[in-house]
């Protein structure tokens, strides 16, 4: 089975700043380490998520995504900032995973927002969630504001440098056996 980098965007939007950021980072990981890239957004999780109180109530569509996430060599997580944090439905998805599901998983964290004022949500909201799961989050996280894009394509060179840096930080966990 080909080793995969899985990108998950916490947005439902079809034209999405977050999805494009996750895609950009995942492509860099694919390029640097030869992993196969697969991308998901919230709509790929299907309609059972909102009403499920436990993972047994989720349908097959979302179980396939969960399997991909659990078996990924690397995860790239991106969320849109909602009220200075990640969206509630994104958290609900992770509430339904087993506490050990992401143990030891290398993860690049990213987020988008309307303003730079909430950039630290990456450190005070998103990183602690994955610390709970005992995942290994890369020290460099990426926060992009909407004005960093042209037609939803990231064009701010400082952010492209940060993507490259975060990707290089994965190397100790990707030594080929
Ligand atoms: C309900 C809601 C709440 C938001 N709250 C914030 C916020 O607190 N801080 C911020 O910087 N941007 C906020 N935004 C703006 C989004 O984070 C921003 O536009 C993001 O890039 C949208 O990502 P998407 O295009 O992937 O959906 C909010 C947007 C929505 C719809």
From TrEMBL:
<protein>
    <submittedName>
        <fullName>FMN reductase</fullName>
    </submittedName>
</protein>
<keyword id="KW-0560">Oxidoreductase</keyword>
<comment type="similarity">
    <text>Belongs to the SsuE family.</text>
</comment>
<dbReference type="InterPro" id="IPR005025">
    <property type="entry name" value="FMN_Rdtase-like_dom"/>
</dbReference>
<keyword id="KW-0288">FMN</keyword>
<dbReference type="InterPro" id="IPR029039">
    <property type="entry name" value="Flavoprotein-like_sf"/>
</dbReference>
<dbReference type="InterPro" id="IPR051814">
    <property type="entry name" value="NAD(P)H-dep_FMN_reductase"/>
</dbReference>
<dbReference type="Pfam" id="PF03358">
    <property type="entry name" value="FMN_red"/>
</dbReference>
<keyword id="KW-0285">Flavoprotein</keyword>
<feature type="domain" description="NADPH-dependent FMN reductase-like">
    <location>
        <begin position="4"/>
        <end position="148"/>
    </location>
</feature>
<dbReference type="GO" id="GO:0016491">
    <property type="term" value="F:oxidoreductase activity"/>
</dbReference>
């Amino acid at each position: 089975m080909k080793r995969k980098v899985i990108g998950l965007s916490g947005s439902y939007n079809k034209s999405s700043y977050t999805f494009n950021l996750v895609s950009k980072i995942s492509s860099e990981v694919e390029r640097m380490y030869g992993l196969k890239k697969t991308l998901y957004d919230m709509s790929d999780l299907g309609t059972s998520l909102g009403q499920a109180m436990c993972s047994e109530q989720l349908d097959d569509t979302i179980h396939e995504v969960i399997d991909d996430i659990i078996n990924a060599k690397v995860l790239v997580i991106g969320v849109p900032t909602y009220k200075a944090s990640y969206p509630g439905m994104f958290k609900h998805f992770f509430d339904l995973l087993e506490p050990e599901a992401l143990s030891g998983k290398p993860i690049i964290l990213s987020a988008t927002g309307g303003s730079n004022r909430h950039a630290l949500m990456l450190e005070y909201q998103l990183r602690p969630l994955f610390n709970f799961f005992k995942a290994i989050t890369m020290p460099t996280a990426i926060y992009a504001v909407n004005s960093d894009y042209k037609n939803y394509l990231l064009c701010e060179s400082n952010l492209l440098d940060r993507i490259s840096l975060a990707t290089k930080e994965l190397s100790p966990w990707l030594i080929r056996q």
